[in-house]
Amino acid sequence: MTTLLPQSFPSDLKLFVGNLPFNVDSAQVAQLFESAGNVEMAEVIYDKVTGRSRGKVVEARVIYDRESGRSKGFGFVTYNSAQEAQNAIRTLDGDDLDGRQIRVSEAEARPPRR
User: Fold this and answer.
1) How far is CA 86 from CA 36, 49, 65, 114, in A?
2) Which domain of life is it from (predicted)?
3) Relative to the CA of 108, which of 11, 14, 41, 93 has its CA 20 to 30 Å away?
């Protein structure tokens, strides 16, 4: 499975977060990732719900289906430093979130659209 970056950030700063429970929003993902680095912003795509906190994570996003408004079960978290991103992978990959083991890995660059 190829993980795509929704924006252009260096891949060592942007993390893919998979196997999220469908009821988890971006603010909850941001809160979880505060344990590896402080969160500055959380944004839900399409719902346009935002929240702010403090810190070094640039963004945390849960991806939603445009038509149904339901979470697709994955998202992205971006840090300011590669060290914090690697710490998040080490400490959060396989963690339990509402009964599901989340996957945390470096995100891959999105291929150009045709």
Assistant:
1) 9, 28, 29, 32
2) Eukaryota
3) 41
Whole-model pTM over 0.90:
no
Cα dihedral value 93, 9, 81, 56, nearest 10: -90
- Write out the two tokens for 42: 């959380």
Q: Which residues, other chains included, contact 22 with Cβ-Cβ below 8 Å and sequence gap of 6+?
A: 70, 71, 73
pLDDT, tens digit, 9 for 90 and up, residues 79-96: 888 888 888 899 999 999
CA–CA gap between residue 99 and residue 95 (Å, rounded): 9
Length of the chain: 114
User: Which structure tokens are listed for 78?
Assistant: 């971006």
